[in-house]
Amino acid sequence: MDLLKLNDGNEIPTMGYGLGTANYKSDGSSPPDKELVKTVVMAVNTGYHHLDGAEVYGNEAELGQAIKESGVPREKLYVTTKISGTKVQDTQEAFALSLKKLGLDYVDLYLIHAPFFAKTPEDLQAKWADMEAIQASGKAKTIGVSNFLKPDLEAVLKTAKVIPAINQIEYHPYLQHGDLVDFHKKHGIATAAYGPLTAAVKAKPGPLDATYEELAKKYGVTPGEIALRWVIDQGMVVLTTSSNEQRLKDYQKVSQFKLTPKEVEEISEIGKKKHFRGFWLDKFAADDKS
Ligand SMILES: NC(=O)c1ccc[n+]([C@@H]2O[C@H](COP(=O)([O-])OP(=O)(O)OC[C@H]3O[C@@H](n4cnc5c(N)ncnc54)[C@H](OP(=O)(O)O)[C@@H]3O)[C@@H](O)[C@H]2O)c1
User: Fold this and answer.
1) Using the 8-state DSSP alphabet, how is residue 105 labeled?
2) Which of 57, 78, 174, 251 is catalytic?
3) What is the pLDDT of residues 114-143, one digit of tens each?
4) Which atom of ligand 1 is nearest to the CA of 168?
5) Where are the alpha helices (DSSP H) in the chain?
6) I need a surface site. Which of 65, 116, 199, 271 has the fewest CB within 10 A?
7) Ranges for the NADP-dependent oxidoreductase domain (predicted)?
8) For ligand 1, what atom is nearest to the CA of residue 227?
9) Is 115 left (phi over 0), alpha (psi -120 to 50) or beta?
């Protein structure tokens, strides 16, 4: 899998396997889910060495167990976790608990899951200072944010000593967030896209169906693989997930072809004809494209 260089000099694999959505465990204190461990081991052995976890997914213990059982050396894996973005809590304590559950002594990437816990810009700035301290301790190689919009990033940038390396957002042709991605580029913040298959799976039927089919035929892949490639070909990181081994293997095909800039542009333009958001629906109005 290709690597993307981040603003702190570290590199991140451009395609990651997500422990959220389908793998989400609502009761994090319940006994370890052996099936979930098996699924994640399968994903690692299929070639997904970038694993996207989070405190709120309730499955850091399973992720840690899968890392051990996979037999892949820790340093060959790229492990992300996130501090809850809705709960007010002590950052150091939450991070220490995440490391303990994961059974790791460091993560490659630590993210603030969302800005929704903050009542004021100062709350965001204080949380970011905590993240900077964690990075300085060496226990998180890279730090970043998730679900931040421009005003949230602007607040953080006002006092930041370290620019966030990444903003992980829902991103697909039907949710392109206006000028947020340009703002990322201007500040050297990488974009990581979750929900990348939305236009090919959840939001069907839609204006992109025929284009995805045509391109899938041209490259001998599925529309899902076109959807993933559209993200990577914009210089972004893509996060996907599946419990289906064949599908995960097939998704590895995304490293074997590239869309032309014209095809990327065509998908972007057609995508703007429909608006669809699949996550955090309680935080955004139905017509909010930000
Ligand atoms: N930061 C955040 O707030 C946030 C929010 C959401 C997600 N994420 C992260 O991003 C990761 C990926 O998100 P996502 O699950 O939305 O990604 P996605 O890759 O867009 O969707 C994956 C889902 O699509 C299904 N799927 C794939 N191909 C399909 C097909 N051909 N037909 C029908 N269903 C198909 C998969 O089911 P099968 O198991 O059947 O393949 C899986 O449930 C999450 O796991 C999480 O780590 C982060």
Assistant:
1) S
2) 57
3) 999 999 999 999 999 999 999 999 999 999
4) 1
5) 34-46, 60-70, 91-102, 121-136, 150-159, 180-187, 209-219, 223-232, 245-251, 261-271
6) 116
7) 18-270
8) 20
9) alpha
Report the alpha-carbon distance of residue 113 to residue 173 in Å, rounded.
Answer: 22
Taking alpha carbons only, the member of 248, 253, 198, 213 closest to residue 229 is 253
**Residue 171 among the catalytic residues:** no
Tokens of 178: 């206006």
CA of 284 to the centre of ligand 1 (A): 20
Q: How far apart are CA 281 and CA 5, in angstroms?
A: 32
Q: Bridge partners of 81?
A: 110
Shortest-distance Cα residue to atom 35 of ligand 1: 201
Within 6 A (CB) of ligand 1 lie: 18-22, 52, 113, 146-147, 168, 194-198, 201, 224, 239-244, 247, 279
Backbone φ and ψ for 3, nearest 5 degrees, come out as -115, 150
- Per-residue pLDDT of 239-254, as tens digits, reads 999 989 999 999 989 9
Nearest Cα residue to atom 14 of ligand 1: 195
Given phi > 0 = left and psi -120 to 50 = alpha, else beta, which region is 21? Answer: left
Residue 118 is encoded by which pair of tokens?
């903050």
- Dist. CA 202 → ligand 1 center (Å): 9
Residue whose CA is at the smallest distance from ligand 1 atom 36:
242
Q: Do the Cβ atoms of 128 and 199 come closer than 8 Å? A: no
The pTM of the full predicted model, rounded to 2 decimals, is: 0.98
Nearest C-alpha to atom 8 of ligand 1 is from which residue? 194
Q: Angle 60-70/91-102 helices, nearest 10 degrees?
A: 40
* CA 99 / ligand 1 centre spacing (Å): 24
Is there a contact between 279 and 195 (Cβ–Cβ < 8 Å)?
A: yes
Q: Is 113 annotated as a binding residue?
A: yes
